Structure formats: structure tokens, C-alpha cells
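#struct-pred
JK: can someone run the complex with adenosine-3'-5'-diphosphate? inputs below
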Amino acid sequence: MSASSGLIHVFNGIPFTARSAPELLRSLNTFQARDDDLLLVSYPKSGTHWLAEIMKHLYPSKVSLTAPIEFGDLSKLEELSNINSKRIIPTHLSYDMLPTDFKVKKCKAIYIIRNPKDTAVSLFHYYRENPHLPTIDAWPAYLEMFLRGEVVCGSWFDHILGWEEHRNETPTLFLYYEAMKKDLPKAIRKISSFLGININDNEIGEICKKTSFSEMRSNVERERSDPNHTVCSLTSNKRLIFRKGTVGDWKNYFSNRQNRLFDEMYQTKMDSSTLAKCIHYEN
Ligand code: A3P
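RT: done, C-alpha cells with the ligand placed:
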């Protein structure tokens, strides 16, 4: 991936797409948060759309699921400030780049994590399909880029570790894609209790139906997509999102050698991480 493709620019050492204007990134720290803002945080391809859909159904009162804070140009900050209801704000930003006022106001965050091997495979396909991302080489060269953190949004490891380090300063609920696949009602109960929302079993059952992979995928076929209404700064085209929605697809891509290299890096980088104990990591 070369920055000269025009699709990518590097800010603070992290590759961003042209959909995140440098002026916006430079002015993020002027953003005024509100005490009741809720952040939906993820490294790309970890289940962002799934989590966002759950949130839409979870709140009984009117809330606004906004576009990501890093998506667009300078007008984004004003656009967000004009929203009157509670704001649910998605982001792929690293903790370092999160506007300071969210930290000062101790806004809550929900962070969704997925096995990095499946995340890498999902991002590989995204690179291939998404016109906002540059052309990449075949899988082996791409995987090396992923491990070096030279893909959009930077290193998976740095993203997770940065958010983990500050989990108590910015109260963060960590959710795991694979645990959600296994027991979605349990994950919804966790979210509700983190946010202080009362919800009964029937309502949870309804949310599970409405947010199943098949339901969400078929809804996209019917929906007309609004380019400004996106929860992922990398695309507004939801048709690119619903690929397989499974656990363990990485096994169809990794050679033994690639798997060994990945495991070595994971062990080194995640050695001191307590989150690593909960991540569904398969050797
Ligand atoms: P795959 O490419 O492995 O299929 P994001 O929303 O962060 O871009 O993540 C996209 C990934 O989440 C895709 O993974 C997509 O299929 C999966 N996904 C989206 N909605 C889902 C759902 N309701 N249930 C399970 N997986 C879902």
C-alpha cells in the first residue's frame, strides 16, 4: 500500500483513508463531548456494524447513531454539535487520537474485539472490494503488512493495547465477537447493565432476531444507502460488510508458517495484556 495512491494519507503515524480529512483529524481535540455521549469503538472488521445495530434497538428513547467522528471534513464537528439527542458515536480512532474532552468527561465506551486472525482475513477482503482502499498484493504480502501495522487504522495490537491501558480513565466495556456469536443474549445483558438500561427477555429475543447476520444482510439488499449515514469511516456501502460473519475463516488462508509467525508476534505483543485472556485467539 503506498500513500501515493491518493486514497491513503498518514496522520500521527497511522494510515487513514481520504474519507478522513487531515483538517478534521487535526482539529479533533477541539471537539466538545457531552457527559452522556457513548462511544462505539473498534478496529476495522471486528463487528462494528453488528454492535451499532444492537445499540439502535437497545435504546427505548430517541438516540442518534452518528457517523464516525473521524469521517468527513471539518464540518463534521459542527454537524455533531447540532444533534440534540443523546449521541452514540462510532470510531476506529486509537486511544491517543480520541478527542480529549471524551476523556475529561469520562464518557462511556464499548469496544468490540475479534480474533485478529479473522479480522485480518476480513480486512483483506475489504481491501479487495472497497474502492476507498488501495489495491493490495496477494494474501502473503498483505498479511505481512497487517502484522507490521501498515494497513488502514494501523496496528491491531497497538489499537487494542492503547484502549486497554486507559480502560479505567474512559470507562470501557470490552465485548468479544466470538462470545456474541455464541451467546448474544448474554452480551446484550452485559451492555444493558453497563449502560443502566432495563430490558426483559422478550425484548432481548427481538433484538437477537433483528441483528442476526442473515437479517442484517437481507435488510441491506432492500435499503437504499445514504452516503452520510455510515458507522464505518472506510465506506458508506453496507453491501461490502456482510461477507461470511463466521468464526475461524482464517484457517482457510493461513499457511503453517504464517500461523507460527502470527502466534509469535501475538505472544510477544499481548504478553502483558489482561484482555488477551478473554480474546478468542486460536492457535
Ligand atoms: P467477515 O468479513 O468475516 O464476514 P465491521 O462491521 O467492523 O466492518 O465488521 C465486518 C465483519 O463483521 C464481517 O466479517 C461481517 O460479516 C461481520 N458481521 C456483520 N454483521 C454481523 C452479524 N450480524 N453477525 C455476525 N457477524 C457480522
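RT: quick notes.
The CA atoms of residues 28 and 166 lie 19 Å apart.
The mean pLDDT is 95.
JK: thanks, will look after standup
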